[in-house]
UniProtKB/TrEMBL annotation:
It comes from the Bacteria. GO terms for molecular function: RNA binding. Belongs to the CRISPR-associated Csm4 family. Keywords: Antiviral defense, RNA-binding. InterPro entries: Csm4. This is CRISPR system Cms protein Csm4. Residues 123-132, 139-151 have a biased composition (Polar residues). Residues 119-152 are annotated as: Disordered. The lineage of its organism: Bacteria, Pseudomonadati, Pseudomonadota, Gammaproteobacteria, Methylococcales. One of its GO terms (biological process) is defense response to virus.
Length: 337
């Protein structure tokens, strides 16, 4: 598979985080709508047999990745630093990946520093933002579209949280692509279709807009003598034979739902819940030549009763890292993430 670096620029607020598995789902719908259902079926052939046509990462601030989900003792301590301030250092510059892993905490920055850097060194300090985004509740009210009223229950307000990013912010998404099944130009156009229509929740009222600024071939970075994988998207590691003693991750449950026209089919938009490992997990396994780990989920009605062929991206692009596994002996009872 060929690796690409995609630069996206947000054009509106977002109501759904741009996670790799969610973006993959919308890419499938974009392929169907632009290239046809037969083309999508060809792309998805063998998807659950470790033969994905595309594996997509989360969207990261341009030039940065998330620090690995490792216990604190894995990193060299910062002398004299406040513990709470150190915990906020979660953004790792891509150009620091070549440094030894224990030193990564020294290169990492917090969101305030990252936001200030994005505004440029010439901007006055008082005008620099303190965070990458701001979240605000947007009031809504349930409307009966047939009667154009609030319906029998009357006034029924609710709020949806919207996330607004700092002006000029750019994201990087890493895409592993089988160009024999979906070429780069079609993939770029389908991503732009998503940006034009809107990504995620409330796209119909203008949220989730973005532009595709670039789509360039770029190999994923990796450390020399890599013996473990750092994931760039949520993944499903179950049953993959990873070394559990030296693997670290945070679990979360994905309560997925169908998008596009599938929302209206059979009146059942919800999928079966999935247990996934959150982005920036570390798995002690030799980095594969394919550039991804995990598995494809679904098919044959396993994930959805509405659309039995539905699949979910349980794969994740990975960066090869050199993990000193002897560090596990420092704290054998440490919490595993």
């Amino acid at each position: 598979m060929q690796s690409f670096s995609v630069t996206l620029r947000p054009l509106s607020a977002f109501a759904t985080p741009m996670k790799g598995d969610t973006l993959f789902g919308q890419l499938c719908w974009a392929i169907r709508n632009r290239l046809g259902e037969a083309h999508l079926n060809d792309c998805l052939e063998g998807y659950t047999q470790n033969w994905p046509f595309a594996v997509i990462s989360d969207a990261f601030p341009q030039g940065f990745l998330l620090l690995p989900k490792l216990p604190g003792h894995w990193f060299r301590p910062i002398t004299g630093a406040d513990r709470k301030a150190v915990k906020k250092r979660c953004w790792l510059p891509v150009n620091a990946i070549s440094a030894p892993l224990p030193d990564w905490l020294h290169h990492a920055v917090d969101a305030k520093t990252l936001a200030g850097n994005m505004c440029g060194s010439d901007a006055p300090s008082q005008s620099k933002p303190s965070t990458l985004s701001e979240k605000h509740p947007q009031p809504h009210n349930t409307i009966n579209r047939q009667s154009n009223t609030t319906g029998k229950d009357g006034f029924a307000p609710y709020s949806v949280e919207q996330e607004w990013f700092i002006p000029g912010m750019a994201w990087t998404v890493y895409v592993l692509l089988d160009t024999q099944r979906l070429n780069a130009e079609d993939c770029k156009q389908c991503l732009q279709d998503i940006g034009d229509i809107g990504f995620g929740r409330d796209a119909s009222i203008g949220l989730g807009k973005f532009s595709v600024a670039s789509f360039d071939p770029m190999p994923l970075p990796s450390q020399a003598s890599a013996n473990a994988c750092l994931t760039l998207a949520p993944c499903a590691p179950q049953g993959r034979g990873f070394d559990g003693k030296n693997s670290f991750y945070q679990l979360f449950t994905r309560f997925g739902r169908h998008g596009d026209i599938a929302v209206h089919q059979a009146g059942k938009p919800f999928k079966n819940p999935l247990l996934l490992a959150q982005t920036s997990a570390v798995f002690a396994t030799q980095p594969p030549e394919s550039g991804f780990i995990g598995q494809g989920i679904g098919g044959n009605g396993e994930l959805s009763k509405t659309l039995k062929a539905t699949v979910h991206q349980g794969y994740a692009p990975v960066i090869g890292i050199d993990l000193d596994r002897s560090d596990a002996s420092r704290d054998s009872d440490s919490t595993r993430f």
